[in-house]
Amino acid sequence: MSALDILTKARELIADPARWTQGALARTTNRETVSPYDNSAICWCLVGACSRASATDEASDDFGPALAALEDACVAAGGGASIPSFNDQPGRTHAQVLAVLDAATESLKGPRP
To answer: Please, which residues have CB within 8 angstroms of residue 2's CB and are 6 or more apart in sequence?
Structure first.
């Protein structure tokens, strides 16, 4: 799974605002904190969504590059020096989170001819 695939799948996971969370990698329907890989997880933060997205049968060396692109997008958006600080910032909106995912995805696609 490529870094681009990881970010694309992560965005799909949290595209619905009800499937995005703050303050935990993942949560259950009862808002309990769980591992992003837990089958009872129904919502994820940015890092949790990337973690869940990268959980495949194939080993991937692209998790690090996916997070690096996402962190660069978070910093560029003025959200702090880390993905968690961007995701968990009070007042952060779901739309802003999707926007940094989109920016990170575009950065991995490279320049357009």
So the answer is: 60, 62
pTM recorded for the entire structure: 0.90
Phi and psi dihedrals of 20, rounded to 5? -115, 145
Spatial distance between the Cα atoms of 88 and 74, rounded to a whole number of angstroms:
12
The torsion defined by the Cα of 85, 47, 95 and 93, in degrees rounded to 10, comes to: -40
| Cβ 25 vs Cβ 48: under 8 Å | yes
Rounded to a whole number, what is the largest CA-CA distance in the chain?
48
As given in the structure block, the two tokens for residue 50 are 């990337």
H-run or E-run covering 27: strand 26-27
* Residue corresponding to tokens 């009070």: 90
**What residues does each domain of the chain span?**
3-109
Digit-coded pLDDT (tens) for 28-39 = 999 999 999 999
Conformational region of residue 76, where left means phi above 0, alpha means psi within -120 to 50, and beta covers everything else: alpha
